[in-house]
Structures are given as structure tokens and as C-alpha cells.
Design brief:
Layout (H helix, E strand, L loop, with lengths): L1 H15 L4 E4 L3 H9 L35 H7 L15 E7 L24 E4 L16 E4 L8 E3 L2 E4 L2
Parallel strand pairs: 2-5
Antiparallel strand pairs: 1-6, 2-3, 3-4
Length: about 170
């Protein structure tokens, strides 16, 4: 769940950060920039996903399929990374972000520093990227966002860690 993922990042900072690195869940903006890559793709590996390209994502059309989270070795041998070297930005597991669920639109644009990335709020958190369990390929669309209560735990939810140098 989100609490455990956040706690892991704090533990990692304490034990491995060496007063040089802060490990955290990515903000929604950081996640999207990493997912889109330098090409600003709409999906993890391109601007669209054809029927042939679906195999490039760890995604199943049948949500009743058994759990199919893919590990590191299999990922490197079967899947492609984006141009930042990141795998599974669409598919595999949907990923928790540090961001609280807040609506944004043209009149109220997203601002990374507006308090939506607080760790102390027990509110719904944004999840990005879709998973192997997503019933529709539309959920693999990078701008798609879901929200869950932070205590939700499921085999299709995971997280990615961001390392930031401390000042």
C-alpha cells in the first residue's frame, strides 16, 4: 500500500542515503515526465498502441488472468525500455505517486508545489501507468490517472523510487 511504499523510501534514505540522497515516491509530475521520456510519448513506448504492439507491454486483455507481474531479469530479456532507460511505465503494475488526488484543468492547472505532495495527509493518492490487470488498453495511456485510498493493497499496485541529491 502507499503507506508501506512511503515508509520503504524513508527507510532507504536513512540506511542508504548517506546524507547525500533522498529516496521517495515520484510526484505525479515526475512520474509523467519519466514515463513520457524525451519523446513525450502518450504510451510507455510510443504515441499509440496497436494490437501488435500490445505484446510490448505487460498487459493482459483478460483481467481474470493470473497475476503476471514481471521481474527484472525477464523484463530485460522480453521488454523494451523507454529512451530514459525505464521499463514498464505502461503496464506491469500501476504505480503509487506521492501526489494527493486533486482535480486540475485549464482553469486550475497542475502545480507541483501546491501542497499536493504532502506525506502527512491520509487522503486518496494518485496511481499512474496501468497494470497487467487493467481491463482496457486505454488505462495504459500515460495521462490516465486513478486514485486510491493509501491503505489499498493489491497485486496490481506497485511503486517506483526516485533518488534526489540532498542540498
Amino acid at each position: 500500500n502507499w503507506y508501506e511504499a512511503s515508509a520503504y523510501c524513508r527507510w532507504l534514505t536513512r540506511t542508504q542515503g548517506g546524507a547525500q540522497w533522498l529516496f521517495s515516491l515520484p510526484t505525479e509530475a515526475e512520474w509523467e515526465k519519466a514515463a513520457r521520456g524525451p519523446d513525450s510519448f502518450d504510451y510507455g513506448l510510443g504515441s499509440n498502441v496497436s494490437d501488435e504492439e500490445v505484446r510490448l507491454y505487460n498487459w493482459k486483455k483478460n483481467p481474470s488472468a493470473e497475476v503476471t507481474v514481471i521481474g527484472l531479469e525477464e523484463t530485460r530479456s522480453r521488454f523494451s525500455s523507454n529512451r530514459y532507460g525505464l521499463y514498464h511505465m505502461s503496464g506491469n503494475v500501476a504505480e503509487w505517486t506521492a501526489t494527493l488526488s486533486r482535480a486540475f484543468n485549464r482553469d486550475a492547472p497542475y502545480k507541483d508545489d501546491d501542497g499536493r505532495n504532502r506525506d502527512d495527509a491520509a487522503e486518496r493518492r494518485v496511481v499512474r501507468g496501468g497494470s497487467w490487470y487493467s481491463a482496457s488498453v486505454a488505462i495504459l495511456y500515460l495521462p490516465y490517472r486513478e486514485t486510491f485510498q493509501p491503505e489499498v493493497s493489491a497485486p496490481y499496485l506497485g511503486f517506483r523510487i526516485v533518488a534526489k541529491p540532498l542540498p
